[in-house]
Design a protein that fits this description.
284 residues, mainly beta, six-stranded antiparallel beta sheet, five-stranded antiparallel beta sheet, 5 helices, globular, disordered N terminus
Length: 284
Amino acid sequence: MIVSKILTKVDSCVVGFCNDDRKLNICRNKREYGLSINTEYQFSPQNEIIENSEDTKQNIYFQVSKQRLIYIYLFQKINTKQTNLELHDIAIQLKLTTYHNQDKERRIQLPIEKSESRYITPLIESLILKIFIIEICDRDVAIQTDPSIGDIILDRDIQNIQFREYITPHLETELKVECGQDHEINLCLNLNKLKACLLENDQNDVKIFNQENFALVGFVDYCNMFYKFKQENRDKDFLFFGENFSSIKARSGIPFFLHGGYVETSWKPNFETASSIENLFLLV
């Protein structure tokens, strides 16, 4: 089941169609000619070349989410000398697979990067994946390369989510998973040619804007009893599922993996705010 909510008065479209690229592309087809389109993140299986002293081989691997928090900055692939921009839209697709077996020891081994592997554990209870597109209105948080869950929500409570006062959620989608199968989430947020200005950042590589700092954030509500137990015991790895199931150590096992999808943004320079001479230099 997919439940979608538009949380603010933003002209947006939410697409919740399963395995239908034509319907998903409705959002993409609204884009005007001349936009720059960036793939911020790719969830499809990846291919890496591994070289050693004897030979070279290819390794196709999957991306496995090891923890309950997913966080991806948006509009980070922008490459232009122009600091004044128009932000047009955010398109997101997530394809994930869960596994069901009454014997939780019957795990699936998946290849990951660097020729390593991870095990996927059968679901032991229902899982709820909560996905948001948020706007961060605090420079100190927006500039962090890896903000903590406490920087995003109050009390680190992923069941009853309350965002910090400087975070505005624009779009929410919730997927409830009760059995092992393939699942898909598709989102598109139209930003209505939102005017933004890139600011200088001499601390790290994060691209920060004057006010429109967007991120994709997801929370995996699963085996919450284990999650709370780890927090109460001040376990520094409280966000992690734990690869091997153990009720004593409050490890649920990794419940899903990603097998496809992307995070995509579109934008263009806003030449209206610069003089003709400035525009000529910016285009060179």
